[in-house]
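Fig. S4 source data, part A: sequence.
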Amino acid sequence: MAEMTLEQKVAEAINQIRPSLQNDGGDIEFIKLDNKNVYVNLVGACAGCPMSQMTLKNGVEKYLRAVVDPQLEVINATGQQF
């Protein structure tokens, strides 16, 4: 089996944490990986939640750095066009 790309590893890790966000009425969508920047879209309850930035940095980014690459940065792309 071929080695997973960094983008595939990021997408897989995001899929692993999605149930936690879905339990709170929200969700996360992986948009793209640009160098070490991970662009995501928060949807549902997460989209308007005042704690969403903390969730991204202390939850999603911390998890991705632990399981994929310690240099990744998660960026909320909600409302941006790609």
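Fig. S4 source data, part B ends here. DSSP finds three helices and three strands in the chain.
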